[in-house]
């Protein structure tokens, strides 16, 4: 009999790709989302699929799913800084109350649960690159705290359910991921720069652009999450691409990729914006036999082709 999996945040960027992956692997998939930052368009190709069901539901309220469940992937949460700054309380609630509800459901159904944690648990890191033993440097009361602390709480309650109830749990610490189905106006740097290039606007680099990020293509990320779910490892695992680049160099790469001649303009660095971020993926390599395969040039080309295919109306929606 096919395995049955619940995926929360199913209409979002990562969640929709996870739905595709698990359907392709022969699972029965239940997607759940309240569409607060997601878009039904990301999963509408699945609506006629016999192995897919969609529940429109806010996971911060009691979650009920009829029938058996073998696995749960908890991916519901605003994920881009402009989203979680706009809806800070919902962000705290989905990481805390939402996670509690899903852990309760996993216990009830005797299902294995994987939660989507983040590199943000390391905050503005003082060790570089970040491995899983680093405890992080988070400003609890800063604007980003609503996301970072919700995710830190999420990890703690997940380990408590594992230790206290013997629940099978997995924790993915996800680093910046990109690819088709990101929202053009979600404010994250890749859609922001590509949108600006396509609209003929200047590229906005925050600060002096010396801050770094390491970008992982969606297909690699999904494969890492898939392997972690099926592994027997209950401690956090970093999933990301260690190839690091400064935001200024990245802006220049986008200008050359899009063959536009946009200028770069500098804007104020947002508060608590991490200065550097690069995953140490030794643990993922060892335990999951996983490492990213897609080079940034190849992944960015696919992402750019996706955004180029969007309507004028989409392009006109701005992030700020
Ligand atoms: P996204 O905004 O595209 O998707 C999140 C989805 O969750 C949306 O469809 C949204 O409507 C849904 N959602 C939010 N609150 C909900 C609630 N209370 N009930 C039901 N649904 C709700 O974001 P994403 O980039 O796909 O991120 C997905 C997950 O991965 C998040 O948990 C995020 O913290 C984590 N993550 C993502 C990245 C990344 O680079 N994309 C990095 C680290 C962690
Ligand atoms: N950034 C930028 N210009 C933009 C959007 C973002 O320079 O128009 C910077 C941002 O300050 C951060 C980096 O790009 O240093 C990545 O930002 P993003 O929001 O994508 O992710 P996060 O900060 O959560 O890693």
Characterization of the model:
The structure is a single chain. The mean pLDDT is 96. It is built from 10 helices and 13 strands. Helix content is 38%, strand content 17%. Helix 4 (145-165) links the parallel strand 5 and strand 6 (169-174). It is α/β, with parallel strands linked by helices and 320 residues long. It has helices at residues 13-24, 81-86, 88-109, 145-165, 189-199, 218-230, 247-257, 282-288, 296-308, 312-316, and strands at 4-8, 28-33, 52-56, 71-74, 112-118, 169-174, 177-178, 203-206, 212-214, 216-217, 237-239, 244-246, 264-267. Helix 1 (13-24) packs across helix 6 (218-230). Bound molecules: nicotinamide-adenine-dinucleotide (NAD) and uridine-5'-diphosphate. The site of nicotinamide-adenine-dinucleotide has 28 residues, from helix 1, helix 3 and strand 5. It is a single-pass type II membrane protein. It is an enzyme of class 4 (lyase). Belongs to the NAD(P)-dependent epimerase/dehydratase family. UDP-glucuronic acid decarboxylase subfamily.
